Amino acid sequence: MTTDTSKSTAKSTKNLLSAKEVTRRGFVKGAAVTAGVAIGSGAITGFPTIWAQNIKNVTLRQFGTGVSNINAVADKVKEDLGFTLQMTALDSDAVAQRAVTQPKSFDIADIEYWICKKVFPAGTMQPMDTTKLKNYDAISKLFITGKLTPDSEIAQGTAPHTVGFVESADSVDFASAPTQWMTLIPTIYNADTLGIRPDLINRPIDSWSELLNPEFKGKASILNIPSIGIMDAAMVCEASGLVTYGDKGNMTKDEIDKTIAVMIEAKNAGQFRAFWKSFDESVNLMASGEVVIQSMWSPAVAAVRSKGIACKYQPLKEGYRAWGGGIGLAKHLSGLELEAAYEYIDWYLSGWVGAYLNRQGYYSAAPATAQKFMSEDEWGFWMEGKAAAGDILSPDGKVMEKAGAVRDGGSYEERMGSVACWNSVMDENKHMIRKWNEFIAA
Amino acid sequence: MATTREKRPTSFYFLATFFALFVLFLYGPMLTIFILSFQGESGGLTFPMNGFSFYWFGNLFEQQAVGDFGGSFARSLKLGLIVMAVTVLVSFMAGLAFRKRFKGDSVIFYLAIASLIVPSILISLGIGLLFNIVSWQPQWFTSALGAHLTWTFPFGLLIMFAVFNRFDPSYEEAARDLGASSWQTIWHIVLPMVAPSLIGVAMFSFTLSYDEFARTLMTAGALNTLPLEIYGMTTNVTTPVLYALGTVTTGFSFVVIAIALGSVLILRYRKGQKS
Amino acid sequence: MAFDMSKRSSYFLISPMALIFAIFLVVPLLTIVIVSFWDYDEYRILPDFIFENYSYLLGSSVTWKIYLNTFKYAALTWGFTLLIGFTVAYFLAFHVRSLTWQIVLFMVCTIPFWTSNIIRMISWIPFLGRNGLLNSALMGLGIVDQPLEFLLFSDFAVVLADVHLYTLFMVVPIFNSMMRIDRSLIEAARDAGASGFETLRQVIVPLSKPGIAIGSIFVITVVMGDFITVRLMSGGQSASVGLQISNEIGVLQYPAAAASAVVLLITVLLIVTALLRMVDIRKEL
Q: Is the pLDDT higher at B274 or at A187?
């Protein structure tokens, strides 16, 4: 078996010295001197810096969920930037734990914004100086001001821009307006909705309230990550008119209690087949026919469909529940490694990864740069809601959609423009989690 | 082997059937794994089958979209082997120590029992918290190793108790009468006699460590062991490559067990030759 | 005395084990106890001395429900593993006559455990699911005409997976006890005119008690602390004490998790103390 480190090392044989170098963190400082002799390929990468020669010996360790911790990205980093990116995929609980409790075990954290709200104040990460990022201006305004277009409304919940900036280089207090110091560089985001099996439901679905429709008794499912599940539950309760909310993204104790009461009643009536926690579980539940309606992510729907099983990412009149993730720097990074991390983050925004993510059905945080790496047909299908002219391929070259297909939910603006709320951490988080546990135990 | 064979009673056939059903039950999920590992290229982790292919076996040795089988497998294997070696050595030493009473022996004994019954997630939480509070970095070869050892030691010790409780000391006395030192006695007499049980301890501890999830959860540090890696991989689309891994592991296990069994037989054969 | 080894060598021999237990068992458990009195907020644990974690835990009806549920799983799993484990051990101890065959059969039972548990759990879904192997077979044979829904994501599924995982740990100690039973006792019982069943009840079961006790200790404690089986097999719809702890860890509420852990530990210790009254493990091994 080949480990990805050795594989990617083999690729960079351009630079003989670096190919021989053991890419281990401990050696970085010493090796910097010797490697300086090597003929650099900085010009090729398009990111020439004075560090370009030594940077090849750097290994950055990134962790996150499997959603964006993709080996192909590490390979491309090796190719374009020359250094090694070591990816560790974890489940969503472990991601938050590791960010807080093992600050030295990572260099780059790939986390969601609502997790950032909990993690960043712990002081294990450092904000990024946006003036060092050439592609900063390419970042969607959604992450800077919270507005997709100047006249859109800001959705409820932990919207990324609310935890996107801190006051100063060593502050852990979130800034209310954009500053020079960014906590996470947005990388990936999406709008979630209900996924359905149209072949087993046979009628139009247009509201979140359908999740609790007795018609689907024993065939419904919901996401069991409290901070996200509660938002799905709130969308359902609001749509059915059972509970009214001041702000779904920051519920009062009373609103939480009412929401959970509705969910417990549904659970005891046997509405749910199972709860899912990982991407894979949602795919398996749907593909195996255990569940016909559940809250779902766009790429999970795509994954079911790629197995030849009908599955629809169903736009709903109440709008979407959105989530976003980004990458941030560990507190301990400094010197050469910090430079490398900045290069990596700037590169992340430069389009290749954006195109890769777009092709999976997520959205890139810098759409304009991603467009340069996508064909017109791909861009039209994924971003503009147009019918595909040819077959649409997944990043690894498998056919995902046949020619003529139109993406569920339409264009980027239609989807991200109808976000009702973001995944969030509420003021009453402790209470919410206790109530959620009650729901699970009921 | 057996010279006098009585006729099998009816209960034998009844019980043999029961045992066969039990084995079938144990292999039930393996059957699904086996069938689905031949899933077609576009097939998923569940039925229906989408064609038939060897695609996923080839895929097992390629880079996955997410995660790293090679690295985590190597780590789990190394960790399992270290745990195995340490458990065999330390349990054997402890087994020898417990043949005599010494001050604090019951403390150690009850610690071992405690170690057996404390839920795995508590060990994980405790070590994770401890390392966090004193700012040590968890690593698979330090904290996770320790966490696994608290799981394998009790088994090792209990097996050693079972062995030494039935151990006939007359062989050692004979050796001593012939002038052997105590270390020579252990090396030449005791060790060969308990060797089959030590192989049992070895296999048991390897199996426990290789598949341990809860105890590794908060103690593995920056790099994942195989069970953690597989769990992490389920945060993206997983494919029947997981089943291919299961099928290959089972096949490989049969080979390892054949080797282990072979070595037991050889040991016994040698012992038979000596006596 | 078998050896002329001094007490010193006993201490030398036991020291590695003692050291590992001290660092990786005793100190971590003490840490948990201490942290259970600490406070916490969204992302930090704050050294303190409060009883809030315990007062919430013990005052919440959820806790009692979860404990009841966990006891239910433990009791059911214990019952089934005992019945199956005893029968299997009896077969291996009294009907399989050569040691080699006993070893081979044990090995055959061990092999499934070398495929990662996570993979095996995932594979229950295509086996027990609505369109799974079992339902297809039952429907194909005309035994049922609707797929059986209770097979998966239910208490049945949790207990099934637990029995699947832990029966072997019941078999081994019972087998060990049975192997120590003097065969002449059984002969004697038979000569005295006892039926097979009477021999079983009067001789074999009482003499297998130590093994039964050890197996029970193991199975019960492991089920009490389990979280991954419950989560995956109930489809996240049931709770257990271990799962509660794991959830609390997941949302960074370490002090709350530590308090739950201490309560669980005390519960388990009480159960085990009760079981240990039945048998002196050290002598009976």
A: A187
- Does residue A90 form part of some domain? yes
CATH code for the domain in which residue A70 is found: 3.40.190.10
CB proximity B57 to A under 8 Å: no
pLDDT in tens, B5-23: 566 778 888 899 999 999 9
Asked if A276's CB is within 8 angstroms of C62's CB, the reply is no
Tokens (6 digits) for A316? 């709903």
In DSSP terms, which residues pair with A85 in a beta bridge?
A60
Q: CATH homologous superfamily for B66-236?
A: MetI-like (1.10.3720.10)
Q: How far is CA B26 from CA A75, B214, C109, C230, C283, in A?
A: 41, 22, 7, 19, 32
Question: B62 by DSSP, 3-state: which?
Answer: coil
Contacts of B30 in chain C (CB under 8 A): 112, 115, 120, 123
**Percent of residues, chain A, with pLDDT higher than 70:** 88
Which residue of chain B comes nearest to A100, CA vs CA? Answer: B132
Most confident option among A207-221, B97-111, C48-62: A207-221
Answer whether A325's CB lies under 8 Å from A112's CB. yes
* CA separation for the pair A326, A108 (Å, rounded): 10
- d(Cα A151, Cα A295) in Å, to the nearest integer? 29
Chains that touch B (3 or more CB pairs under 8 A): A, C
Mean pLDDT of chain A: 83
Q: State the ipTM, two decimals.
A: 0.85
Question: Looking at the structure, do residues A236 and A158 belong to the same domain, yes or no?
Answer: no
Angstrom distances, CA of residue A14 to CA of A9, A42, A381, B204: 10, 12, 37, 48
- For the cut 80, the answer to whether the pLDDT of residue B65 exceeds it is no
**Surface-to-core class of residue A232, CB atoms within 10 Å of its CB (0-12 exposed, 13-18 middle, 19+ buried):** buried
Cβ–Cβ < 8 Å for B53, B40: yes
Write out the two tokens for A353: 């990864």
- Strand A293-296 relative to strand A220-223: parallel, antiparallel, unpaired? parallel
Residues A246, A59 contacting (CB under 8 angstroms): no
Distance in angstroms (rounded) separating the CA atoms of residues A53 and A41: 8
Q: Which residue in chain B is spatially nearest to C228 when comparing CA positions?
A: B214
Task: List domains and CATH numbers for chain C.
Answer: 60-284 (1.10.3720.10)
Sign of CA dihedral B128, B133, B139, B142: negative
Is A335 found in the same domain as A255? no
Res C69: pLDDT: 93
pLDDT value at position B5? 54
- Whole-prediction pTM: 0.83
How distant is the Cα of A92 from the closest Cα of chain B, in angstroms?
8
Cα–Cα dist B271/C17, whole Å? 30
CA distance C96 to chain B (A): 9
Within a domain: A403 = no
Residues 371-410 of A with CB under 8 A from B: 396, 398
* Residue B127 token pair: 């070590």
**Helix, strand or coil for residue C262?**
helix
Between positions 302 and 321 of A, the ones with CB within 8 A of B are 303-304, 306-308
Whether residue A169 is found in the same domain as residue A270? no
- Better pLDDT: C190 or C84: C84
Q: What number of residues does chain C have?
A: 285
- Asked if residues C205 and A403 have their Cβ atoms less than 8 Å apart, the reply is no
CA closest to A290 among chain B residues: B46
* Chain A nearest CA to B238, separation (Å): 6
CA triple B174-B179-B185, angle to 5 deg: 65
Cα B143 from Cα B138, distance rounded (Å): 5
Q: At B37, list the tokens.
A: 């590992």
| Cβ pair C110:B172 closer than 8 A | no
Position A44 scores a pLDDT of 41
Q: How far apart are CA C273 and CA B116, in angstroms?
A: 13
- Supply the Cα-derived Rg of chain B in whole angstroms: 23
Radius of gyration of chain C (CA): 23
